[in-house]
Amino acid sequence: MKDKILGCYLVPYINKVKQFKKAVVIIDGFAGCGIYGDKSEGSPIIICKILESYNKKGIKAIGIFIDSDPGCFKELEKNIKYFKDKGIAITEFADFREIVPEIIKVAENSPTFFYIDPFGIAGLEFRHLENIFEKVNRSSTEVLVNFNYRVFYREIKAHPELVRDVMDGEYYKEILKDKTLSNDQKEKKILEKYKDLYRKYFNFVGSCPVMYKDEQDAKYHLIFATSHFDGLRLMNDIMGNVYREFYTKGRLFDTTPPEKRRDLKSLRETVINLMREIGITNRENIKKILVPKSFMRYKEGDYNTLISKLIKARKVYSKTGRSRINDQTPISLTKFPQEPKK
User: Fold this and answer.
1) Where in the chain are all domains bearing CATH 3.40.50.150?
2) Which of 57, 77, 267, 297 is the most exposed place for a label (fewest CB within 10 A)?
3) Within the chain, which residue ranges are assigned CATH 1.10.10?
4) Block mean pLDDT (10 aa), the chain, length 342
5) CATH of domain 2-248
6) In what order do the strands lie in the sheet with 89-93?
7) Contact between 316 and 275 (Cβ < 8 Å)
8) Residue 317's beta-bridge partner residues?
């Protein structure tokens, strides 16, 4: 799931930031070997193949692949040698945390996408990430990070200082002590608190639970942070599609959890209630409010289709009087006054 999400998103990301006319940089902070034991492609190979396709079009894009495990790094060097020889990939045998100053030098002048996928939570100490976020150009920087709640929970007793540093505080203790909350509720609250750390630096933050086989609990959560709504709306569709595919592909029945199913009846009520509250608006504004709140549950096209149907049913009115509208067309629950004929 996570590698598919990464691969699907990098193409529209590069398409967007290439307008800055600067080299695009993808940083894989915990790259691993590049190829899994079952011979499937890991993130370095996925990234390099995408970067190669852009370099062939004359768009400068490079990948920086960091790993501190000697065995993994040796395999990584071998597996992406072809791309290194072409100048597409750079490898660094280093601890992600220790190489932060060098990362900042690269990222502060280029559109940069960070893929931060450690094995566990060591390496996610937030002060290191914060050092990066404070200095890079966040208008062209985006982040995809793996937050492993299971490891977080195990490490509370084994390595409490590490957990405190990762979470940038000990606020999680009160949540875990709350006997009125179920384990699922505790996980969701702690995940939201952790995402709040990224919200200090980025306008939009969403997350996707990554499942393992038929287990009902998330193996970990992929957290995405961006300063642009275009990024969020794209990732909303990509994560939602990959997540739903996990619960439907090769299965006799759709086993998607109810809270993640695309219930358009519920969406209809939500949209109408929102329009009652804010008055004259447009599709863009509705999506900017609702996509972050219902991240992954609905596709962007669901909002477009629903509003067109509401206009056709005369439950919503567009200023143009047409049901086919764009994101900027004013819409309202009441009719717009007709402009006098000239």
Assistant:
1) 2-248
2) 57
3) 258-332
4) 91 91 92 86 94 93 94 94 94 92 85 92 92 84 93 93 96 95 93 95 92 68 94 94 78 65 87 95 96 92 94 94 93 85 58
5) 3.40.50.150
6) 89-93, 61-67, 24-28, 112-116, 141-147, 220-226, 204-210
7) yes
8) 332
Which residues contact residue 3 at a Cβ distance below 8 angstroms, ignoring those fewer than 6 apart?
41, 42, 43, 46
Give ∠ CA 64-60-141 in degrees, rounded to 5. 60
Residues whose CB is less than 8 angstroms from the CB of residue 9 and which lie 6 or more positions away in sequence, other chains included: 144, 234, 235, 238
Range 151-174 burial, b when 16+ CB lie within 10 A, else e: bbbebbeeeeebbbbbbbeeebee
The neighbour count for residue 68, using CB atoms within 10 Å, is: 17
Taking the domain 258-332, which CATH number applies?
Answer: 1.10.10
What would the two tokens of residue 256 be? 């998607």
* Type of residue found at 167: M
CA dist., res. 314 & res. 334, Å (int) = 9
Residue keyed to tokens 């086989």: 213
Structure tokens at 251: 């299965």
Tally the C-alpha atoms within 13 A of residue 148's C-alpha that lie toward its C-beta.
19
How many whole angstroms from its chain centre is CA 47? 16
Q: How far apart are CA 190 and CA 171, in angstroms?
A: 9
Distance between CA atoms of residues 20 and 190, nearest Å: 36
CB 70 within 8 A of CB 60: no
